[in-house]
Amino acid sequence: MRIVLLGAPGSGKGTQSERLVKRLGIPQISTGDLLRAAVAGGTELGRRAKAAMDGGRLVDDALVLGMIRERLAAADVRRGFILDGFPRNLAQAEALERLLETLRQPLDAVVQFEVDYGELVRRISGRRTCQDCCQVFNLLTSPPTGADALCPKTGAPHRLMQRPDDNEATVTERLRVYDAKTRPLIEFYRARGLLRVIDAEGEVDEVTQRLLQAIGSRGKPAAPAKAHESARGTAARRAPRALTGKRGGARPPGGKRRSRSSR
User: Fold this and answer.
1) CA distance 13 to 36
2) Which of 101, 113, 122, 197 could join 225 in a cystine, given CB atoms 3.0 to 4.6 angstroms apart?
3) Which residue among the candidates 174, 190, 196, 238 is catalytic per the annotation?
4) Residues 225 and 138 both lie in one domain
5) CA atoms 203, 11, 6, 80: torsion sign
6) Is 246 known to be catalytic?
């Protein structure tokens, strides 16, 4: 299967991607990983990307698409792939669509992860990264316990730190950007009959089951989501209200309305 996972920061796309990799035996393609690998490997695309980043510029879409094209030429993607973190806006979605048409690798499904914005702020604010092995934990949902209690690099307890962009104020701004740039992709993919929407709140195993049902547990996608779906449509409409302050949704920190997760 060829799948795109959409969702706001902290919606659980990375966690569920790892589970799909194990379940379906297809690779996850992360643009962030591709950029780091290209820069570390000193490829032509990597050198151009590094020059942009060193100059304080964003890596342009053409470079990112070039890296994706290279990645899709690898043998391990013949059975499919999971795109996580790309596309992020309509221009990227249209460029990806043209690329996949050229490669004759059209998408099978696009899954939108819906989570209340108040819950997203709570989740992301709880994220911590080990300074030594770079493993990511969440103090609320997945703290370092059991086999993960010790850092594999040092053998000592993890030295956890919070990323500068994981504080509450920055998270709220990131959600505003997501709302403006990435949410329009929901209708873009709905119009193509590819969209599936899942409730990404709750236990990790529960979300995994919803995801598998959405794409079809045997690899055949379930029926596309419709604009008038009751429960999923409500979830899809809930997030923008969290930022606009309209009735019916959670507001960002400082607002008067409490999110569902804080009640």
Assistant:
1) 19
2) 197
3) 174
4) no
5) negative
6) no
* 127 catalytically annotated: yes
| pTM (predicted TM-score) | 0.71
Asked if the structure places residue 62 within a domain, the reply is no
Q: How many domains does the chain have?
A: 2
Q: In this structure, are 216 and 132 located in the same domain?
A: no
Query: What does DSSP say about strands 28-30 and 81-84: parallel, antiparallel, or unpaired?
Result: parallel
Give 242's pLDDT tier (boundaries 50, 70, 90): very low
Given 36, 98, 159, 163, which residue is catalytic?
A: 163
Q: Is 256 a catalytic residue?
A: no
Instruction: Check residue 98 and give its pLDDT.
Output: 95
Structure tokens at 219: 């690899």
Domain assignment present for residue 82? The answer is yes
Domain carrying residue 96: 2-27+74-125+167-262
- Through-space distance between the first and last CA atoms of the chain, rounded to whole angstroms: 39
Q: Catalytic: which of 2, 71, 127, 210?
A: 127
Q: What integer best gives the mean pLDDT of the chain?
A: 80
173 & 216 share domain: yes
